[in-house]
Amino acid sequence: MSELWASPTTLLGQVQRGRGLGWLRATESPAEGKRALQSCVQADPRWDRQVEARVDYYATLALALNVPAAEIAHMRGAADAAHDLADSVAVQMAKRGDLTGLPALKARLVSLEAAEELLPALARLEAPDALSGVPEILCAALTDDEVIDLVRYARNEVPWSTWARENTRIASALAVASDRETHKSAPPLAADARIADLLATGWPSAMPRRLRHRFRHELSTADVQLVRETATGGTGYGRVLAMRILTERADPFVIPTAAQLFADNTVGGERAAAIRYIEALDPTATLPLAREWFDLGDDRAGVAAGIFALHAEPADLPRLRPALGPALQQREFYVLCDLIEALGRHPDLGPFPELVEVFERAEYSYARKRAARVLAQSEPTFGDTFGFECLWDCEAAVRQVGAAHVSTSTASRPRLAELVQDGCEDPEVREAAAGRLSDASRP
After folding, report:
1. Which of 191, 259, 303, 312 has the most other CB atoms within 10 Å of its CB?
2. DSSP percent split of the chain into helix, strand, coil, nearest 5
3. pTM for the complete prediction?
4. pLDDT tens-digit map of 275-314
5. Considering Cα of 239, then 48, then 422, then 122, what sign does the dihedral take?
6. 251, 213, 219: which is closest to 232 by C-alpha?
7. What is the pLDDT at residue 184?
8. d(Cα 17, Cα 390) in Å, to the nearest integer?
9. Is there a contact between 59 and 87 (Cβ–Cβ < 8 Å)?
10. Which contiguous run of DSSP H or E holds residue 117?
11. 112/118 Cα distance (integer angstroms)
């Protein structure tokens, strides 16, 4: 995350945040827009790179500013990351027709880390030149073990079998990878193992439906007692699994244990399991806890916000609304998102001016996504104000909200038509834009 956030009123600050207004301002001032684009591509400004969208936003901005993908591909940051934002934007520009960045992207395939990220993306381009010469690059740069690892990592996304017909090293790597897949070790325990054995080893992966049904409906009284004891006094994988079982059963027995984990600011798997457990319980049990915890100085306050996001009642809003400003100021974005969701449960009690500040200032685009959704439901002027800029926002969900609610003025219709015709656009955005244009055409 960039620590050099520009003011949200500046062009750079808005492009960093992925706002539609920033995109529009950049295209109106191309020189300043290109400087902002380069700054963001070189120093990825996302607060959470795992979920926040910026790639297509910067790709379309580059195309609008006539900045070729070849130039974008060389806008690498100082850190030699295996896969940075410049790579992703250049790939997206190739998807949109600018293939000039392909040589630079292929040159990055000389390291295993970069190849694991870039090779599947290049394969998905379906462009004639996207994979030309790639087998030779890989085999010249990577060891035999690295090629095998790469084949296993991207087994179903890359045409290994086609390459193997003419490349003996890839053929050998494909054979070894297939053999290792065949002999992959089985899970240590089956889903019908004794509860005591399961609790002793944990269940690290997603639970199959059969196991979830067993935990909900088929445990004996002794099994339930053992699960409760493990959740209360156990540690590690066993306690996590016990919490997961009690979550499936919506069993309130270990609320005090979960509360203590939050009070101790526990991190890791136990905390995550405890949060899922608390949020799965009936609100008659958890909403009073949220009201008690909300102003505390430990992790219980954040958990309370999550409960309010699910179950806030109208009487809770006067207490929650003043908390949005401090959460935004302190960049407690997960709490902020939960508070926005809580307000969104009661849009009829709006408008909420606090959400305007979130929309304009938040560095976390997922917070703006939530704010846009609630503003569209609670702010009568949304279609004439923020609705228009939402059509260019970095987040597809915001573009969808904008398309569904924007005023169908002369200014918005060309952009709505553009969204409908964009083959790279999210299907739900295209559908919303088409629906809005249809509404506009009715007498």
Report:
1. 303
2. 70, 0, 30
3. 0.90
4. 999 999 999 999 999 999 999 989 999 999 999 999 999 9
5. negative
6. 251
7. 59
8. 13
9. no
10. helix 112-123
11. 10
Query: Could you tell me if 65 and 75 are in contact, meaning their C-beta atoms sit under 8 angstroms apart?
Result: no
CA-closest candidate to residue 307, choices 322, 286, 324? 286
Those residues whose C-beta lies under 8 Å from the C-beta of residue 252, and which sit 6 or more positions away, are 281, 282, 285
C-beta of residue 30 within 8 angstroms of C-beta of residue 65: yes
DSSP string, 414-443: HHHHHHHH-TTS-HHHHHHHHHHHHHHH--
Token pair of 300, please?
Answer: 């219980």
Structure tokens at 325: 């400003």
Task: Tell me the C-alpha distance between 95 and 319, whole Å.
Answer: 47
Which two tokens mark 163?
């390459």
Averaged pLDDT for residues 63-72: 97
Joined together, the tokens standing for residue 421 give 């015709």
Let me know how many helices (H) and strands (E) the chain has, helices first: 29, 0
Q: Which structure tokens are listed for 254?
A: 């270990």
Could you tell me which residues come within 8 angstroms of residue 267 by beta carbon, excluding any fewer than 6 positions away?
Answer: none
Structure confidence by residue, pLDDT tens digits, 383-404: 999 999 999 999 999 999 999 9
Q: Give residue for tokens 């685009």.
A: 365
Cα-to-chain-centroid distance, residue 126 = 25
The reported pLDDT for the residue numbered 408 is 86
State whether the Cα torsion 426-428-430-432 is positive or negative. negative
Q: How far is CA 350 from the centre of its chain?
A: 28
User: Cα separation of 251 and 11, whole Å?
Assistant: 51
Contact of 316 with 293, CB cutoff 8 Å: no
